[in-house]
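Re: your question about DYH5 protein

S., sorry for the slow reply, the queue was backed up all week. Below is exactly what I fed in.
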Amino acid sequence: TEVIEKLEEVVMIWTKQIRQVLVESEQIRREADDVGPSAELEHWKSRMSSFNSLLDEIKSSRVKKIISILQAARSKTLQQWKELDGSITIAANEAKDNVRYLYTLDKFFGPLANASPVMMEHIPSLMNTVSMIYCTSPYYNTSEHMTSLFLKITNQMINTCKTYLCEG
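Result:
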């Protein structure tokens, strides 16, 4: 029982750390007012990397052994652990899915950032791709995500036009 208590303490520490990561990932992002759409892709890539690392750690043999021992001992700490494991998996899947969809927009970010109003020819294709993401993505199709994306696209267009006007 002493070993079980020590292992439960370890799992409780992990649980607290994982909860902290989840809470931090859900906090509102602070970004510059003029940040472009590539920042959205970078955010989700970073989040995907963090959650994938966390999943790799959770799936490591060391963690699996501890969880197995606690399962055999019918530890009460495992209920919280299972819930967190599920939350991490969902967050990792969301980040991975969002990166996959945002990569479809990546080809528009370069032309959008070019210092020329010619970018207007890319807008219909860009909007079709955004529409496709909204209609098909199981995670990214919220008004919050779409608003953030449109704001960044608009910022990039404004910055491109400002640059064009200042250089011209």
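Residues 30 and 76 are 38 Å apart (CA to CA). The chain has a mean pLDDT of 89.

Happy to talk it through on Thursday.
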